[in-house]
Specification:
The chain is mostly helical and 536 residues long. 71% of the residues lie in helices and 5% in strands.
């Protein structure tokens, strides 16, 4: 089978059965592990920051939260150009290059973690660079959507995204494990010693244990190198979808050029938003984030040249369709919540349940001291993302059978109720000298939230496949996933700020209000009698 496929018509039943199915599924099964590693490298800072605290790195809780926020925002911003990559450069070219690009932040993170005395900005730079992994989702989903007929879109995209989302769980289970052993021998550097108890899937790891935190980054090299090779020799470019991809060198240049440009607004926005000494602290997050998105789009439009300019202009046509914006909001409910909670929960567990909270009746001031009975964040943080990723293909399959919007409506209602209850649990825990007694309720309600987001991830992508034609569906999938990925920035920052204010419950109440608004939005556009597009 040639690398570049000249004819592609998966809606033709005969073509699909004789030719298309085999090619489509081969590309899908290569795409899945590549996307999994992208998620893992992007989101690894959620676990790394917990272990940095356990190892006594000289950074405050606020400073550690900035690392998860930076990687989250960078990954979301990188998705914006990624949504255009497949048409510009071809699926095989893009997946190979973006998977190989992950080697740089993986190795770089492994290096800086061996130097706790280095300044904060060196860690923030690696967190920023890890954002490349976040960008991969948009191009991966856009690519897979072009291989399958509409009737299988929900299932195929659910498999790609759902199993790709397992990168979160894989990372949360694997990183605590590999930090306990010398994977690379003398080449991997010396261990550090835990100053606080840590943990992994099977229990606590006691203070005083040697820990190879650098393995959190270095280990991914073992999978990224073979995956890059497999993508290069096993995947295809669809010329009807990517007519101007050009040769591999030209394709690599276009991807690298656009990615490099997008780092500029991401760095500029973070500098204006983050507090001193990292930044200026001038902008509210709700101003900084839209500003970064708008500037990124403007840069992409102005800096493109040659065939790139025309292709990007064509794909910008999605912004004239109101359904692009409604689906963006709905995907922020589902994927935005999944990725945001995945990023925020490990450190939130460590802060809220890792301390006993005592109110001084005389002064009205809360004091927070180490809780000897605290649950280990690294032991439990993986469970929610695991459930959410596991159920995502199921959500796509059910949506294929009954309609995407009805599934989205049901899970949105569940998320409203679960978020309110989660807020109540957080309030009780943060006002208790024994917060661990509320941990089981906390864990259960967040598992429910993750399950709902997983179902909704599949159903919303199914709805996109129904609403938009094949030309626009890919860019819309990429765009909605890009905006939703800002959940990885929003959730850590909102939860951090509310914890700092002593009102963590307000973060969850705010999310519940947003979910309720989107529930009405979904009903208005896709479920009410007389709606322009009923689905079902």
């Amino acid at each position: 089978m040639p690398t570049n496929i000249k004819e592609w018509n998966p809606e033709d039943a005969a073509f699909w059965e004789t030719t298309g199915r085999k090619i489509a599924y081969r590309n899908l099964w290569i795409s899945v592990p590549a996307l999994l590693c992208g998620f893992a490298v992007w989101l690894m800072w959620g676990i790394i920051t917990v272990q940095m605290s356990n190892l006594g790195f000289p950074f405050s809780q606020d400073e550690l939260f900035t690392l998860t926020a930076i990687s989250g925002l960078a990954g979301a911003t990188m998705r914006i150009p990624s949504s255009f990559f497949i048409r510009l450069a071809g699926g095989r070219n893009v997946i190979f290059l973006t998977t190989s690009m992950l080697l740089a932040p993986a190795i770089g993170t492994g290096i800086v973690l061996q130097h706790p005395e280095w300044p904060l900005w060196t860690f923030q730079l690696m967190a920023l660079w890890s954002g490349v992994g976040g960008g991969n989702f948009a191009s991966s989903m856009s690519n897979i959507s072009t291989f399958f007929p509409k009737r299988l879109q929900g299932t195929a995209l659910g498999i790609n995204a759902g199993l790709g989302n397992f990168g979160v769980t894989t990372m949360q289970i694997l990183i605590p494990l590999v930090m306990t052993v010398s994977v690379f021998g003398a080449l991997g550097g010396e261990p550090m010693t835990l100053v606080k108890d840590s943990g992994w899937i099977f229990g606590k790891i006691l203070a005083g244990t040697p820990t190879y935190i650098q393995n959190a980054g270095l280990t991914w090299v073992l999978s990224l190198v073979p995956l890059g090779i497999i993508a290069w020799f096993g995947m295809n470019n669809l010329l009807p979808v990517s007519p101007d991809a050009g040769n591999a060198v030209s394709a690599f240049f276009k991807v690298t050029w656009l990615y490099t440009l997008v780092f500029v607004p991401a760095i500029g926005g973070l500098y204006l938003y983050l507090p001193t000494p990292t930044g200026l602290g001038m902008l509210n997050m709700w101003v900084a984030m839209p500003l970064i998105i708008v500037v990124t789009l403007v840069i992409l439009k102005l800096a493109a040249f040659g065939p790139m300019k025309e292709n990007i202009a064509k794909q910008f046509a999605i912004f004239n369709n109101k359904h692009t914006w409604s689906m963006t909001a709905l995907y922020l409910v589902t994927f935005g919540s999944f990725i945001g909670f995945s990023m925020a929960l490990p450190l939130s567990i460590a802060v809220i349940f890792g301390n006993s909270h005592v109110l001084d009746a005389a002064t009205g001031v809360w004091t927070h001291v180490k809780n000897p009975h605290a649950p280990s964040a690294l032991q439990y943080a993986w469970i929610g993302p695991f459930v959410g990723a596991l159920i995502r293909p199921v959500g796509g399959w059910i949506a294929d059978k009954v309609g995407g919007s009805i599934v989205t409506q049901i899970i949105s209602a569940v998320m409203v109720v679960a978020s309110v209850y989660a807020g109540w649990v957080l309030m009780q825990a943060y006002q208790s000298a024994t917060p661990e007694v509320y941990f089981t309720q906390f864990l259960v309600v967040f598992v429910v939230l993750f399950a709902a987001t997983g179902m909704g991830n599949g159903s919303t992508f199914r709805t996109v496949g129904v609403i938009f034609d094949r030309v626009q569906a890919g860019p819309v999938l990429g765009w909605t996933s890009a905006v939703a990925a800002y959940g990885s920035f929003i959730a850590p920052e909102v939860i951090k700020n509310q914890i700092k204010a002593g009102t963590p419950q307000n973060a969850m109440y705010g999310f519940a209000i947003f979910y309720a608004v989107c529930l009405v939005l979904n009903w208005w556009f896709y479920l009410r009698k007389g709606s322009e597009i009923r689905n079902p």
